[in-house]
Specification:
Length: about 200
């Protein structure tokens, strides 16, 4: 990014480029490096890389949260918890931090009640309430929806999803209120059963 800023300022001296925040100072290719490390599941490399980012941007909450995520991906769950707990105390409403703490807890065979939350995250599980929400979402729809669409429209952003889409598809198949044509995750067609007139 520093090279980019220098080059940009050479061509545009009247309006120099000044980063708006420390997070904007990331090198231009940072996302490519992270993509390669994640794609190749090089979790130790990801930890080392995110440590280097944190050294360059010690005040960046994104860099701090990213290191916690790298520990979770590397299955270093206790290290992730030890690292993320003080971050959660400072920033209790940051969802990425909350969800990485949940991943670490679950990786250690614990549950959400085994952590002293400042702000406890919402956890979505397949239960009657969730199936009722699916029914309410699908009821006014004329065209069937896929399970992916249901998750994206109804569940995404509603909390930590503690189930796989395949599990929701199976639960919908066994709930008599739904008509399910199982053609895989993206091809599934789910609608509510309507009484014949």
């Amino acid at each position: 990014m520093d090279n980019f800023i220098d080059e940009f300022n050479k061509f545009n001296a009247s309006k120099p480029y000044i980063p708006a925040s420390p997070d904007e100072v990331y090198d231009y290719e940072d996302w490519e490096i992270e993509y390669e490390l994640i794609e190749h599941e090089d979790w130790n490399g990801l930890i080392l890389y995110r440590l280097s980012v944190l050294r360059r941007h010690p005040d960046s909450l994104e860099a701090k949260s990213g290191l916690g995520d790298a520990y979770v991906r590397a299955s270093e769950y206790q290290k992730a918890l030890d690292y993320l707990e003080p971050l959660h105390r400072e920033h209790p409403d940051i969802i990425d931090i909350q969800w990485n703490i949940l991943e670490a807890l679950f990786g250690l065979g614990k549950n959400e009640n085994d952590f002293d939350w400042v702000e406890k995250p919402v956890i979505l599980r397949i239960n009657e309430t969730l199936l009722d929400q699916c029914y309410e979402y699908l009821c006014p729809k004329r065209k069937p929806r896929s399970v992916i669409d249901i998750c994206n429209k109804l569940i995404l952003g509603g909390g930590y999803q503690d189930f796989q889409e395949e599990e929701l598809l199976l639960a919908l198949k066994y709930d008599k209120r739904f008509k399910v044509e199982d053609k895989g995750l993206f091809g599934s067609e789910i609608s509510v059963r309507r009484e014949s007139r």
